[in-house]
Design a protein that fits this description.
By secondary structure, the chain is of the alpha+beta class. Helix content is 42%, strand content 23%. β1 and β2 (42-49) form a beta hairpin.
């Protein structure tokens, strides 16, 4: 059961921040964990990657791609960091972006960049959304980002996948 089945996104049960996180995880099975941080007003995307990849060249290429993308779109980035957190069996690739300038298209760019540059090393949960559901989630992501850009977020949340479900926690 997904969180969307539990509560309607317009019901007030989910805030814009939690709705954004749930929709991003539903739309992008490549993202393992996502956080929305109210102190820094940032979005933190965490990807699980097996050990066989070269971090520094990947980081440099992705930073350049994000810089060029945002420059082309006419946006200024205030927060953009890419870190590697080594774990025992897999590594975490952590991308932190400010909520004011990130867009759904940029999230899509990040995911597609990682898929094409890391390939099978990127650990992906099996996604089962239909094309119609993918488009719905993209609309929800755009709407939630617009609201959050205008108002900010007053709480911090983390969403993660577990046994085919999306779980959201207050941070």
């Amino acid at each position: 059961m997904t969180a969307v089945e539990i509560a309607d996104l317009n019901s007030g049960y989910l805030t814009h921040g939690t709705g954004l996180l749930v929709s991003i995880l539903l739309r992008y099975p490549e993202i393992g964990t996502i956080s929305c941080c109210n102190e820094q007003q940032t979005l933190v995307l965490k990807f699980l990657i097996s050990k066989e990849y070269d971090f520094e060249p990947l980081k440099n290429k992705l930073l350049l791609a994000l810089e060029l993308f945002n420059q082309f779109e006419g946006r200024k980035i205030s927060v953009c960091s890419i870190e590697q957190h080594k774990q025992q069996e897999v590594d975490l690739l952590v991308i932190t972006r400010d909520l004011k300038s990130i867009t759904k298209n940029e999230i899509n760019l990040i995911v597609e960049f990682l898929k094409s540059n890391i390939g099978k090393q990127l650990i992906v949960e099996q996604g089962n959304l239909s094309e119609e559901e993918i488009l719905l989630q993209e609309d929800v992501i755009n709407h939630m980002l617009t609201v959050i850009k205008a108002n900010g977020t007053d709480k911090s949340f983390t969403a993660l996948r577990e046994d085919g479900r999306v779980l959201v926690f207050n941070s």
